[in-house]
Structure prediction request, 304 residues.
Amino acid sequence: MSILVTGGCGFIGSHLVDKLIEKKHRVIVVDDLSTGKKANLNKRARFYRLDIQDEKLEQLLKKEKPTIVYHLAAQMNVRKSIADPVFDARTNILGVLNLLENCVKYKVKKFVFISTGGAIYGDGVKIPTPETATEAPISPYGIAKLATEKYLHYYHHQYGLNYTILRLANVYGPRQNYQGEAGVVAIFCNQLKNNQPVFINGEGKQTRDFVFVADVVSACLKALSDKKPNIYNIATSQENNIQQLVATLQKVSGRKIPVKHRPAIKGEQLRSCLNYQKIKKHLSWAPKYDLEKGLKETWQWFRE
Ligand SMILES: NC(=O)c1ccc[n+]([C@@H]2O[C@H](COP(=O)([O-])OP(=O)(O)OC[C@H]3O[C@@H](n4cnc5c(N)ncnc54)[C@H](O)[C@@H]3O)[C@@H](O)[C@H]2O)c1
Prediction:
């Protein structure tokens, strides 16, 4: 099949592209390289350096005629979305609409949208959180993700576009960027590699659900067999706090990690952990990596 991956030079997108190519699909990547790297890109993918807001996107879809679109390109820095909501909305809302309009025009059969669990459900929800929990995003980033989910409902209703929404927990793994507002695992691995202490905000009792990137990729593939529009959490349902994360990283690396504490961040979510029973039931997906196994592969990559 001919498959378009937006954000295919990024952390998660590049792993997805590798797997799709391994499965002999023809893969087209659109990425503006704002946070992604050309070095991540599989050489067998056809690459267009393009902003998803660009009107040239129409020519691309007309020419390449993808059957499937995986949409991962995003402004994904929550703090930046708070500092500049207009900038966030340009990519995360207007860019998405540009893409969706052209998907309908050039008859894309299926749209897989990479959404977020962390920024859509707030604090105070049931743990592990099911997809039926009330969405209460408190950042422009989370609002734009939720808005895209609603737009997809509209595009299905109006034009019959089939879609799957994957709400990811905290993803980690090789190639994750450790700069900017990066994932905590990537930041810690980089600090450890440079023999520097890691910084924990507050006591480190805040919990996250860490899902390994290969498991996210396998969920992306499973999504293709879903005939009807659906929303799924992609997670492990294992709640680990930041202290436990450091302890596990110490164990897999065999190194002692010096820890320093900083003041807690006001408003930081205290608990995040998602229930993945829906996708398990519908599409037989379950994560294969626990934190220790995933961290082992991640640390090996950072070390090398
Ligand atoms: N990493 C996580 O923990 C996590 C959790 C939930 C959801 N997500 C979502 O997964 C997706 C991929 O995230 P990631 O962690 O791989 O981040 P990433 O920054 O590595 O990947 C995003 C990619 O999109 C590209 N991009 C950004 N704006 C673009 C634009 N306007 N036009 C074209 N390309 C553009 C970037 O260059 C980059 O390659 C995002 O949609 C993100 O919101 C990630």
